UniProtKB/TrEMBL annotation:
InterPro entries: FAD-bd_PCMH, FAD-bd_PCMH-like_sf, FAD-bd_PCMH_sub1, MurB, Oxid_FAD_bind_N
Keyword tags: Oxidoreductase
Name used for this protein in its record: FAD-binding PCMH-type domain-containing protein
Upper taxonomic lineage: Bacteria, Bacillati, Chloroflexota, Ktedonobacteria, Ktedonobacterales
Organism in which the protein naturally occurs: Dictyobacter halimunensis
Domain FAD-binding PCMH-type: residue ranges: 57-149
Pfam families for the chain: FAD_binding_4 (PF01565)
Source superkingdom: Bacteria
Amino acid sequence: MQDMTPHNNYPAGNVPLFDLAHSAAFKADMVYQHLQKRFGSRVHRDEPLAPHSAFGVGGTADIWVTVESRDELIGLVNLCAEEHWPLLLIGNGSNIIFTDAGVRGIVARMAGHEYQINKEPDGKVILNVSAGSNWPRIAHELAPLGWGV
């Protein structure tokens, strides 16, 4: 059988965020304290992942944080890039299976609550929904406007 493992041939300083081989220096306690100042009670240490997946499986995340706005998301991504902290972004967990070994680093759930309806000049209507939004809630809010009928 052919070895399909990718080889790490990254130029110095250009290691992608998902390369856990280069994240051995990740200090979860220090990162947790730093993120708690920014996100408060929305940051959790050693968070069980099973309740956050529709499949109900998975170990723990070193750090779990819920981001509620585009600005928070951009700030977190920039911070993780600057500090070389591993980051996994997820939505509502409806299409992810976590391993029983869990996730080393930060798992950030995007908990969007915003949507926008845009009417185009040609008469088309486009619905833009923020990542991590709750589809049943949005459908319930849009039904009185004639959507989904």
